Amino acid sequence: MPASDQPAHFSRIHRGPFRRFGFDRGHQPQTILGVNMWHAMHLGMADPPGDRPRLQRELDHLQRLGVNNLRIMASGEGPAGQPWRVTPPLQPAPGQYDPRVLDGLDYAIAEIAARDMQAVLVLNNFWEWSGGMAAYVAWATGEAIPYPRDDRYEDFLAYAKRFYTLPECRRWARDHIAAIVHRDNPCTGRAYRDEPAIFSWQLANEPRHYPLEWIAETAGYIRSLDPHHMISTGSEGSVGGDFRATHADESIDYATVHIWPQNWGWYDPDRPETYEAAEAKARAYLAEHIAGAAELGKPLVLEEFGLPRDGATEAERYDPASPTTIRNRFFAAMYAEVERSIEANGPLRGSNLWAWTGEGRAGDALIGDPWHEPPGWYSVYATDAETLELLEKHRALEITIVEVRYLAFPVANYESWVEYCFTNGLGECKWADNPFDNMEPATLARYWTRLWKNPAALRDRFTLEQIRIGLLFVFRNSEWWCDLLQPPLPEVERVRCIQVLLKLHTDLLDKLPVQIPQIGHDFNALYSFDSIDQSIFLLLDHWAIGADEYTPVGQAKAALIRSILVTCRSPNCQAGALCALSSYASNTDWMPRTLERFLKRPDVEPRVRQYAREIRPDEIGPHFI
Predict the structure, then answer these.
(1) 8-state DSSP, 238
(2) Which of 135, 190, 343, 402 has the most other CB atoms within 10 Å of its CB?
């Protein structure tokens, strides 16, 4: 669906100019730093096993860590008393709901919303621990479930996949979807379909052996009930089916992938030396799915990944006191892949680690490990200081990348960025000498787009002088861009931000057939925007001047100016860099060396050499000219 059709406070797929792939919320780029907390619905119950004060504390802790997304169950099929299954079930029988559990889901959503966090709501499950598809089959056939923990793994797979072929199972599942999507939440006063704290609806947890028409049918049905929220599959990736075909349907907004090195036989905790090969396989599996998502043109979320704790025995690996050295290596590796993708403008846009246990401990009814798994196997505890520090660092870097480094998009997207600025009112299209004064913003953007592709394309309509003034308008708007980013950037990141913008501008200046009419260093004239080199100066002067060069920020700024001066080719660009250079104090010890290196270049025009001599007569002797 068009992004413009979705309410701004909902999360949506980004289809605008800044990134090829991504999410937005409130017109701001969004990455997913998440955890799996499947038990939030049960923890939100007013009576045991619910614990609302604990739920509040857990969410407060996650919010402090920067977590913005929780993947939770919004389903659970009975009857109660079955082995390896969470109790009480949300749906003890088809169409019958336990009001206590529904109330727990309402409460959990309200608490998530109160912290401006979001949840992925999982509407079914291929595995037995919440009832899921096998429970639907048992309802329809009356046959006992062959549980995997009873060494009947293959029997269970064959049994659960009958869900897709039994019409009553699919009908009951659709009825459940409608009941949740249409539900009015008394804790928030909003229907679920109108709840901005819902990030997406998810078809099922790790569906397997499905016909592709089930994906299209179920996603299309959800879309018919709720046209605004995103929809995801819950797929593990190619382990569970054909990844590209699974996510190709137009109602599936983004792709998902899970990675389980121990479960899939890549890592043996009894042999820690197997870790490096396992990590390599995990990276390769993720890369395969990043490539697949790129082909689909959809964002990707790594929504399950985990490893056990260190320890020579299983008991040690389930003990909260055991270290998490290898797990942290794995988490760091996966986070690095997320960061690398965001920085490269790729589709992988976030992750949800498995699984948040927080205050819970083995013996508690509700922890991160579901009831079919040994308690503590993949649990992340509130006391796992090194893991939580890793999470916080990842969040800080994600913010930096998504707010700054995605600016390093391809040149073609720069055209779209300018159009976005014009059409969204980020710049002002009126000033005295602008020949485009009465032009509609979208029209001006189209002219600019053509100009970028071919600088001579507008000569039949405008003079070069008019084009030059139009370019100054674009540059002047660009000067503000780093200040528009939210949250505000640290100083070093502001430098990185302007580096990206200046690279785009200097590339353009090197291509333009527009020559500055006169070079001079009258600072009143510089601030009149009379030439392209002067607008480059303003960019540099505003962002890259004024810090102590011996501080990290000052060193970054100085390096920026030196780099521009010695790499740009056109007189326009060179003169602009010299303008900015002239603002540094005369005792700057690197100035003579930089100017000497610059003036030794054979492509420096005589007038630019003269300009360098005028702005730095003390540092530049005749032998440099």
Answers:
(1) T
(2) 135
Ramachandran class of 105: left when φ > 0, alpha when ψ lies in -120 to 50, beta otherwise: alpha
- Long-range CB contacts for residues 267-273, cutoff 8 Å, separation at least 24: 267/307, 269/308, 269/311, 269/317, 269/326, 272/310, 272/326
- Rounded Cα distance, 560 and 552, in Å: 12
Read off the tokens for 34. 């998440």
> How far, CA to CA in Å, does 512 sit from each of 227, 295, 434, 464?
46, 34, 19, 10
Using CB atoms within 10 Å of the CB of residue 611, give its burial: 0 to 12 exposed, 13 to 18 middle, 19+ buried: buried
**Residue 451 three-state SS:** helix
Alpha helices in 521-570 (DSSP H): 523-526, 532-543, 552-567
Rounded CA Rg of the chain: 29
Q: Does residue 103 register a pLDDT over 90?
A: yes
Q: How does 201-239 read in b/e, with b if 16+ C-beta sit within 10 Å?
A: bbbbbbbbbbeeebbeebbebbbebbebbbbbbbbbbeb
Q: What does residue 218 show for φ and ψ, rounded to 5 degrees? A: -70, -45
DSSP state letter for 383: T
- Provide the CA 601 distance to its chain's centre, in angstroms: 43
Q: Which two tokens stand for residue 462?
A: 């405008």
Whole-number Å distance between alpha carbons of 187 and 526: 59
Task: Give the pLDDT mean for 244-263.
Answer: 97
Q: What's the 3-state SS for 326-368?
A: HHHHHHHHHHHHHHHHHHCCCCEEEEEECCEEECCCECECCCC
Show the DSSP H helices in 366-490 as ranges.
385-403, 411-423, 441-453, 464-479, 481-484
The 10 Å CB-count burial string (b at 16+, else e) for 468-482 is bbbbbbbbbbbbebb
Question: What is the pLDDT, as a whole number, of residue 554?
Answer: 62
Q: What is the pLDDT of residues 591-621, one digit of tens each?
A: 677 777 777 888 787 777 777 766 655 544 4
Burial status of residue 383 (CB atoms within 10 A of its CB: 0-12, 13-18, 19 or more): exposed
What is the number of other CB atoms lying within 10 angstroms of the CB of residue 305? 23
Tokens of 467: 């084009």
What length does the chain have? 625
> Position 382: which residue type?
A
Query: 331: number of CA atoms within 13 Å, CB side?
Result: 29
User: Residue 348: how many CB atoms within 10 A of its CB?
Assistant: 28
Which carries the bigger pLDDT value, residue 111 or residue 544? 111
Per-residue pLDDT tens over the stretch 396-437: 666 554 544 333 333 334 445 455 444 544 344 333 344 444
Other Cβ atoms less than 10 A from the Cβ of 253: the count is 23
| Beta pairing partners, 110 | none
Provide the greatest CA pair distance for the chain: 98
pLDDT of residue 522: 42
Q: Which amino acid is at 200?
A: S
190-191/198-202 β-pairing: unpaired
Closest CA to 308 of 330, 276, 282: 330
Reply yes or no on whether the pLDDT at 507 is more than 90: no
Crossing angle of helices 532-543 and 491-511, rounded to 10°: 170
- How many angstroms separate the first and last alpha carbons of the chain? 62
